[in-house]
Amino acid sequence: MAQNKGANVRYRAIDKCLSAKHGRYSWEDLQRACEDALYRAFSERISVSRRQIFNDLNFMESEAGFRALIKRTKDGKRTYYTYEDPNFSIANMPLSYEELDQLKETVLLLNRFKGLPQFEWMEELQSKLADKLHLNGTQESVIGFEQNMDLKGLENITPLFDAIVNKQVLNIRYKSFKKNKPITCEIHPYYLKQYNNRWFLFGWNTEFNAITNFALDRIEAVSPMLGEYKPKPEELDFDEYFEDIVGVTIPKDKRVEHIVMRIAPDRYPYIKNKPLHPSQHNYDKEYRISIDVIPNNELIALLLSFGSQLEVLEPQNVRDMMREHVKTLNKFYK
Questions:
Q1: Which of 15, 182, 190, 268 is the right S-S partner for 175, CB 3.0 to 4.6 Å?
Q2: pLDDT tens digit sequence for 136-194
Q3: Does the model's pTM come out above 0.85?
């Protein structure tokens, strides 16, 4: 079956017309029904051509589609379309083995959300799917996801997600680890990102006139506020935004560095198979790797986590950053 999201909306719209007990539908009627359904689904006007309608009808009749028996009735110059069986509907068709397998995988993935605040509806949906798919006898967990259920701020994920989708300006009370008193900010939210088992909100901070990030576990309160929402700049792609860093912090006035490291031979295969960054290049004979990133605190913390099994060779400024941290550690373990 076709996987095109817009196509599925059209098929359902056509199906609703063809299965109607009363009324006749020409291709123009089907066209209007499809365009209305697409507008409800995507909140934008999408034109559907005459050829597209005929292609959709042919697909619905095909073995690859729904094997529907569509009746064509001529009345003057017009042709009207209905199902030969008035009780037929693509909504009544049984799921294929492939679709059942996909749903079963979905049930397993839904287990990831168990226990998260404000995701109780997800657990109810998971239970209903398990019952329908006859999985109730096989619900022992067989997959584990890394997540901290006791992490503060998880209750803010849903309202922040809704604010991003609905383009709602927010008032956020935030207390960083560096300041004793919380601050209040007007934020235009754009993006949620998880890193190192913590969640971060990225948005336009009107006080700094720039995009900043907020750790959800340091947000004390979130509330909607009146004001015109500042849309995310069109040129801003968050996939690209994080390309040159490890973690979530982009330091000011710093550039991408070519960082070369020597890895202990017994640790090298692990780092080769699980790169520190997408830019990683491996040099097997020398047990070395290189990455091209902007140095930040998250990078240094990651490199230090390998202890004596990793040495930064260049550039000198990153090597110096590592040295300063090692000096501090040495004071604790004399």
A1: 182
A2: 555 555 555 566 666 677 778 888 988 998 899 999 999 888 777 888 999 999 999 98
A3: no
CA-based R_g, the chain, Å: 28
Q: How far apart are CA 77 and CA 74, in angstroms?
A: 7
Position of tokens 């902007």? 294
Q: Which two tokens stand for residue 151?
A: 């992490």
Tell me how far apart the alpha carbons of residues 230 and 162 are, in angstroms, rounded to a whole number. 16
Asked if 287 contacts 311 with a C-beta cutoff of 8 angstroms, the reply is no
Q: Residue 145 is encoded by which pair of tokens?
A: 């996801």
Structure tokens at 206: 């009107």
The amino acid present at 275, given as its one-letter code, is P
Q: Which are the contacts of 224, defined by CB distance < 8 A and separation ≥ 6? A: 163, 168, 169, 170, 171
Q: What number of other Cβ atoms are within 10 A of residue 290's Cβ?
A: 17
**Segment (H or E) for 28:** helix 27-42
DSSP 8-state symbol, 209: T
d(CA 295, CA 293): 6
Segment 3-24 mean pLDDT: 84
Residue 188 φ then ψ, to 5°? -105, 100
